[in-house]
Amino acid sequence: MKEETSNHSRRKFLKSFGISVGAAGVVSSFSLIGAAKAAAKKPAEMVNLLTQDGQLVQVDKNQLRPTVTEPLDELQKRGREGIPGKSFVMVIDLSKCRNARKCMDACQNHHQLRQDQHHINVLQMQDAEHTAPYFMPKPCQHCDNPPCTKVCPVDATFKRQDGIVLIDNERCIGCRFCIAACPYSARIFQWTEPKDAEKYKDLTYNIEANVPQKKGTVSKCLFSADRLREDKLPSCVSACPNGVYYFGDQNEDAVTNGTTGETVRFSKLIEDNAGYTLMEELGTKPRVYYLPPKNRAFEFNGDLLNEENLH
Amino acid sequence: MKNTMKNIAALFLIFVFSGSMANAQGWTVPASAKKKQNPYEATSKNISSGKKIYNIQCKSCHGDPTMANMLPLAPVAPTDLGAQNFLVQSDGEIFYKVNKGQGAMPAFEKTISDEDKWMVIAFLRSFDKNKKVKQQVAEVKNPEVTDVKLELNVNEEDKTMLAKLSGLTDKGKRVGLQGIEMSFLVKRSFGYLDVSGEDPYTNETGDVQIQFPVDLPGDREGQVNMLVKVTDDAFYGKLEEARVVTLGVPTDPVNPLDERAMWGTRANAPIWIIVTFVGGVLAIWSVIFMVLFQMIKLPKLAKSKD
Ligand code: SF4
Ligand code: SF4
């Protein structure tokens, strides 16, 4: 019962917080609009602006508009709902992974993580003494029967209609039950102030990228849900130089390779290459499929820590 | 004259340099492998399918042939495969290197079929200025045409599509264009799925027919967005037609949140959990209240006993 009440006050606080943030936004936009209106009376006055590609341009002051940012509530709502009609899946081809770790870099950039924090991690695997070693990238499996969401006492982590499992770090109380529940060790905890906390402290929280990160909350792979909304492939998928990742919509039965851009039938890819999921005996029903490391596209000398293997 | 001398000198230097680079990388190709010849003819058909494979498998690192827009990898950047100093090698030499790979270059021995590799080599040879293998024989020659048109015919019954490519000759006659490769692409979330099949080349009348896959999901009504185009822009410029066709299998996307499940949030929790939980809470509180109630009753009871 205690939990209920504390949760309630927390929500109240968040509500008032949301209102004050919203109010601040309205006030500042009023002042901008005011400035624009005032400028309208004068004869056209030009201001110098730097465009994104680094060109200096002149713009009529009357034409200036404040940029529109989605308010927190709106981001939160659509982040919880997900993208209708989609069912995202990832396929990881282990025969092509050579530990380039470009996926990890791209991910850490996107989600404001430090070098030692991983939403996706390339593991060095050797299943038994006499089996061949291989590299295995391991993101959150976005389970269809996720143990992590079952244990969250405050509904902070949840599954949406497109299959993606997200965390709302505005709700997360940092109990870390979900970390204990996840059999894939996919989740990390922000023990300290996150990277660049100072720099991003004024940013509106974007639930679909889980940025800015927050001390005392949990984070994990989100399939780059914010990029998917723009029909872009997840950061890791497009960053891989070796064609390891396929990503797509299971409802369309098609996945696209992030490196080559080639689109193939999902069912056929899995069938032809004996695709499998990790620890399926647990009944978690992962959405990340693996293709076995056979017929490798590179020579593997078995020495996992050899610099030569890092391409 | 001076300029040509300079050019020759530069070429020579590049040649020597690339040679030493190749040695530095230690590409040693056995003599027997070097002797191999491309068993496939350099027809425009083979070249264009080679181009297709090249764009999927090689382009991401090597860039476009002759454009020198490869990935700037360190320490050794990928070679421009359309450069003359690369193309001086024999077919067999290139084939061997593609098979074996080296350093950052993957070995494609098992990931691309031999036939596909030879197609790519045929495509690369088309940039060879020395034309060691001369462009081959017996190709269909289409007449010079203007106003090239692409027409589409969809048969929803047996899920086939017919594309017709035609142009206007200088005599004002509309003729079919033969031997041109067409691409039939289905729009998916992150790219286009190629459903052209094995042999998507136009016949003598300029027609090409493909079988749409019988089990490819469409939207609720079975509609899919198709893009049909001439694969290689080099022939007649960009020629394509986009159309919505009802050839897919009607698919109702399942919303996992429609069902109550253990993993659901409070709103989606199974009824039995809600009932047990609420029942449990009620039971505990009623016991507490009962005890309290009895305790209040105690003094009264004591009084009445007195
Ligand atoms: S992999 Fe772990 S964190 Fe991801 S959905 Fe499954 S249980 Fe949850
Ligand atoms: S750590 Fe946060 S997300 Fe995880 S179970 Fe606790 S409250 Fe939920």
Automatic annotation (TrEMBL), chain A:
- Would the keyword Iron-sulfur turn up in this protein's UniProt record? yes
Q: Keyword annotations for this protein?
A: 4Fe-4S, Iron, Iron-sulfur, Metal-binding
**Per its UniProt record, what Gene3D superfamilies does this chain match?**
3.30.70.20
User: Which residue range or ranges hold the 4Fe-4S ferredoxin-type domain?
Assistant: 131-162, 163-192
Matches recorded under InterPro entries: 4Fe4S_Fe-S-bd (IPR017896), 4Fe4S_Fe_S_CS (IPR017900), ET_IronSulfur_Cluster-Binding (IPR050954), TAT_signal (IPR006311)
Q: Output this protein's name.
A: 4Fe-4S dicluster domain-containing protein
Species whose genome carries this gene: Marinifilum caeruleilacunae
Upper lineage ranks?
Bacteria, Pseudomonadati, Bacteroidota, Bacteroidia, Marinilabiliales
UniProtKB/TrEMBL annotation, chain B:
Organism lineage reads as: Bacteria, Pseudomonadati, Bacteroidota, Bacteroidia, Marinilabiliales
Does the keyword Signal belong to this entry? yes
Source species, please?
Answer: Marinifilum caeruleilacunae
Tell me the superkingdom of the source: Bacteria
Which InterPro entries would you find in this protein's record? Cyt_c-like_dom (IPR009056), Cyt_c-like_dom_sf (IPR036909), Cytochrome_c-type_DH (IPR051459)
- Which of UniProt's keywords are assigned here? Heme, Iron, Membrane, Metal-binding, Signal, Transmembrane, Transmembrane helix
Give the Cytochrome c domain ranges. 45-128
The protein's matches in PROSITE patterns, at most eight in alphabetical order, are given as:
CYTC
Q: What is this protein called?
A: Cytochrome c domain-containing protein
- Keyword Endoplasmic reticulum in the entry? The reply is no
- Record-annotated membrane-spanning stretches: 271-293
Signal peptide residue numbers: 1-22
